[in-house]
Amino acid sequence: EVQLVESGGGLVQPGGSLRLSCAASGFTVSRNYMSWIRQAPGKGLEWVALTYSGGGTYYTDSVKGRFTISTDNSKNTLSLRMNSLRPDDTAFYYCAGGSSHDYWGQGTLVTVSS
Amino acid sequence: QSVLTQPPSASGTPGQRVTISCSGSSSNIGSNTVNWYQQLPGTAPRLLVYPNNQRPSGISDRFSGSKSGTSASLAISGLQSEDEADYYCAAWDDSLNGWVFGGGTKLTVL
User: A61 contacts in B (CB within 8 Å)?
Assistant: First the structure.
């Protein structure tokens, strides 16, 4: 059974940094497409970033230069390093695995507020 | 403003057939496959229908997807109360080099 478990969310001040992690089991992160997708409270889904086997990465325009997606193959985890956080980055952040976002974690809440 | 356009709401009575539309452009739906996701209240989204109208294990065959040109549709037959959820379409966008989602459709079973 595939499980994706996110962690690392919390309250951070504007301009601050946070690192999210997604631990995978039953699924090899390094061999698959992996994305971070966020959802502001009461709003719709927004894709944030993607990485795939070979190390390629893509980002939505609003996070380019601020967020970095990466994988740790030894720990089979996906990470999202978030710098220069803004209030509009407040959202539940989900990791999703597979070329069709086949598998989702339960999400972790990031709140950017002073 | 989402790149893919969905109606904000839809409704139907038990047993009815309901369709949810998703409109895009040549750079996303027109040139790539469309996935559909279901988000039950208070839970994470899950994949519902993916390319070639396939469904993940455990997803009822009451759910089906189709695509024509730059639009796609999700059909739900034999509507049940447990189908009350938010539904999202998504596709890769060749111009944006990223995934784009619809704004979501809230389905109410009357």
Answer: 96
| Weakest-pLDDT range from A75-79, B10-14, B51-55, B94-98 | B51-55
User: What pLDDT digit, counting tens, does each position of B46-77 carry?
Assistant: 999 988 889 999 999 999 999 999 999 999 99
User: Cα(B95)–Cα(B104) distance, rounded to whole angstroms?
Assistant: 22
Phi, psi of A113 (to 5 degrees): -160, 150
Helix (H) and strand (E) counts for chain A?
Answer: 0, 11
For A60, residues 6+ apart whose C-beta sits below 8 A from its C-beta are A46, A47, A48, A49, B96, B98
Across the interface, which of A45, A58, A61 has its CB nearest the CB of B45?
A: A45
Chain B residues with CB inside 8 Å of A35's CB?
Answer: 99
Phi-psi region of B26 (alpha: psi -120 to 50; beta: other; left: phi over 0): alpha
Q: Do B102 and A44 touch (CB under 8 A)?
A: yes
Give A68's strand partners: A81
| A107 at B interface, C-beta within 8 A | yes
Q: Is B96 exposed, middle or buried (0-12, 13-18, 19+ CB in 10 A)?
A: middle
Strand partners, A29: none
Tokens of A48: 């944030």
Which distant-in-sequence residues (6+ apart) come within 8 Å of B72 by Cβ? B21, B22, B24, B29, B34, B65, B66, B89, B91
